Every structure is written in structure tokens, then in C-alpha cells.
Amino acid sequence: MAIATVNPATGEELKRFEALDREQIDEKIERAVGAFRGWRETPVQERCRLMARAAEVLEERAEEFGRLITTEMGKPLAAAVAEVRKSARGCRYYAQNAARFLADEEVELEGARAFVRYQPLGPVLAVMPWNFPFWQVFRFAAPALTAGNVGLLKHASNVPQSALAIEEVFRQAGFPEGVFQTLLIGASQVRDVISDPRVRAATLTGSTPAGRDVGGEAGRNIKPSVLELGGSDPFIVMPSADLDRALDTAVTSRTLNNGQSCINAKRIIVHRQIAEEFTRRFVEKMASLKVGDPMDETTDMGPLAMPSILEGVDEQVRRSVEAGAKVLTGGKPLDGPGYFYPPTVLAEIPEGAPAREEEIFGPVASLFTARDIDEAIRLANETPFGLGSSAWTNDPEEQERFVDEIEAGMVYINRLVESTPEVPFGGVKSSGYGRELSHFGIREFVNVKTVWIDASGGERGRGVE
């Protein structure tokens, strides 16, 4: 895939870049190693000050960067600007909390002083996707850099200008040269970077197959990795729910980011008592959304990011219909230039159909009816994914069952699933491992060092692990 900016609303290529060669990659890795020597010794308070400055840069240039995001991947402009401001919020969160998260932790022991110290690992490679081209980078970079690591970014090949802009943010904020660098490289070059002994860890947000490649290569080289992979999130609605709020949130969640988010509500599971009304109103709301120019403030949903995404979504819908699924609205790409696909609702989806078993990375909602809470939970858990989930009920016993029994890294009750700096983000099963954000995120790429200073002079426990 070419490293190029192609406007998904028009299909026009705007700018193309040459991939770095092996010598250029080597120079950047060596620069990262040199930067790490000084950055790890920089007091955490200074690292936090610079991260707070990065937040200011993002806020000052939010409109500019928002237009760049929309141009490269097609989300509505208001959402793109909001993403930049959310990235600023993430930077500010770690600027305010990193020192506390990284402070030594004392352990009470008789006759000794023991504590845990958190120390950075070194250069970390981040392989990041195009769907949230700023936020997903900053939710890695803000904790990793304040912890004292340095970052190497391999961004998606269709958002190269966003990748370079993020490097510019850190430069403008005053970070030392080499602490954060963008690598304009193709996917085939990632393996060599991970296997380079100077690179100490890797993180990826992307597809499950990409996760196998990155996680596998990191594992072969005995390096830690964090994988945030795909999702086919359930959105369960029970009879006691506030139906108006549940409906509005279901539509918002499924079409957020033009339907291209790992935590979109992809499988809508509705109790049979309210299924008829919910379905009618949900289809009406989905069909009423305005699809068009993402720079137009009246647009609800822009194009898909790439022709391959459009073709993949169309194929999954066609295969689902061939298997017996029923199209309630949408279902075919829109005519004209650009990569537009309408909000789509499928129902009566049989086992084995893509809309039931695969992640559809576009604005396609799969509707299911559940007889009771047991069937709702079974449907929620029947996919190989386990990232986010949303359940709508005002019954405390049902809430507890969903919290306890849904197989996912995140369960949101009566709320849209979202990533936010204050709580950990990540999944289970084929949705990956490790956690981003909160204090868990900043401790993923550190040496959790045990320190024991014996004051007794004894030999307690010698020879026993």
C-alpha cells in the first residue's frame, strides 16, 4: 500500500511519500537510543511539564489538525476537531498524574526496607491505525513518554501527514530531539524494527491478523507487547431500559467515526418484549442520517476511509444476505465519487453469516432478538472478540449479571462505550491483551523493579524461590 494522503470523499490522491530505507530506519532507531539516555534521567516533573505543553499545542491547533484528519480519513470535521481536543485531554491527564503513578511503592517487611520502583524500558514501537489517527497515538505516547520511554511511530499508510503532524506537536512542545519520531515505512518493514535489539517493546492497535504478526514477532524476540485488536461489541437492550436513550445511543455508537471503530455497537441484541418497537424506531433513525461531505457541518456521516474498506463491508453484507439475512435499510454502496456506504441494518441473521460472526468495519448494525437475559448473554459472548460491551437495563440484578458474565474487557451499563484517560482500555479473547490508559497504561512499558534492602544482616529465605 502506498504511503499517501487520498481524500476518501473524492478518491483524489493529494500527497505521496517515499518509505524510509533500511539505513534511514537505522539512523532513527539510533537517534531514539541516544535520546533515551537523557530522557530517562529527566525528572518526571519535567517530562510532565512538557506533556502539558503538548496538550496546549494540540488545543491551539485543534481546528488545523481536525481538517487534516478529515482530509486523510473522512470523519466529520466536528468529530475530528473533538479527537484532537481529546488527545490534549489525554496528555494533560498524564501530565497531572504520571508522577503519582510512577512513585516508589513501599512494602512493609520486618527488618528490611522493600519497595517497587517503576523504570522505563527504552524505545517503544507503536503500530497505529488510521481510524483515530491522533487519539490512538496519544493514548500510547502520553503515558509511554511521561514514564521515560521514547516513541517510534509506524502509522497507517493512509494518514502520513497526521503522523508527521504528531511528531511536530512534540517538537513544538519542546521535547528533546529523538524522543518521539515518525517512521514512514510500510507494513513489510515492521518486523525488522520489532526484531532490532535496540527496540525494547511494541504496541499495536489494529486487526487480529496484524496482532498475531506483531505479538508473535515481539514474543520471538522476548519483548513485551500490548495489542488492542478488533471488536464485535454487543449492545443489549432490556425491557426496563430508558428506550429513548438506548435508541439514540445505539445509532450514535454504530455510526460513530463513520462506523469505523473497534468499540462501535455492532451487534444490537434486544429483548423480545420491546424488539418490535425498537427495530422500527432504530431503522427510522439510521435511515434518516445524512451521508455526505465530511467538511459540511450538517453531515452526520462521511465516507469510509479506503476503497478496500468499502469493498470489504459490501462483500460482508452481500454474503450475509446470501446466507439469509434481511436488509431493513441501506445495504449497497452509494453512487458517485468517494467511498460512501449508507447506514445499514440487517436482521434475521443466521449462524455462519459474516454479520453474525465477523467484525464489520463500517456502519452496518446486526439486529438480534433475545427471549430472555440468558439468551442475550449467550449472543453477546458467541463471537471470538471481547473488547467492549454496552447493556441497557435499570434492573440491578440484570446489571450485575451483565457485569459478571459478559466476556469483554469493558462493560458499560446504560452508557456509550468510549475510551477515556481515567479508566483502562483493552480486551480479551481475540480482541487482544494488555491495557491502555489510566495507571495500568503507564505501567505496561516499565520495569517493575523490586528493591529489598536488608537491615538485619540475616539470610532469611536463602535458596527458596
TrEMBL record:
GO molecular function: aldehyde dehydrogenase [NAD(P)+] activity; succinate-semialdehyde dehydrogenase (NAD+) activity
EC number: 1.2.1.16
Enzyme class, first EC level, given as a word: oxidoreductase
Keywords: NADP, Oxidoreductase
Presence of the UniProt keyword Oxidoreductase in the record: yes
Domain of life, per lineage: Bacteria
Domain Aldehyde dehydrogenase: 3-451
Family named by the database record: Belongs to the aldehyde dehydrogenase family.
PANTHER family, per the entry: SUCCINATE SEMIALDEHYDE DEHYDROGENASE [NAD(P)+] SAD
Protein name per its UniProtKB record: Succinate-semialdehyde dehydrogenase (NAD(P)+)
Organism per entry: Rubrobacter xylanophilus (strain DSM 9941 / JCM 11954 / NBRC 16129 / PRD-1)
